[in-house]
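Problem 12. The chain below contains 99 residues. Write out its predicted structure in token notation.
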Amino acid sequence: MASLELAGSRAERRRGLLGRDGLEGAILLKPARRVHTVGMRFAIDVAHLDSEMRVLHTTTMDRNRIGRHVRGSRSILEAESGSFERWGLQVGDELTVRE
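Solution.
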């Protein structure tokens, strides 16, 4: 289990992790279909999620990259690079957000 920030507004999704030096936990961009790391200060793990919050695809993105669109993706989970491996997050996992 990890702490989670929700970026639900257009402004929050656009800002994302820009200007930060790191992130404890993860950030959920919803809705979102693709992301970029242009101008970011660190590499990130990215998980594309379907409408049921099931992991469709994961990747690690270095700084200053443009991510690809993943068919069926409705939201995106971002965390510092290496987080998904530590958490054991894999394609097919279904995530739950608790308040």
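Discussion. The longest helix spans residues 10-15. Students who got a different answer should revisit the alignment rule from Section 12.3.
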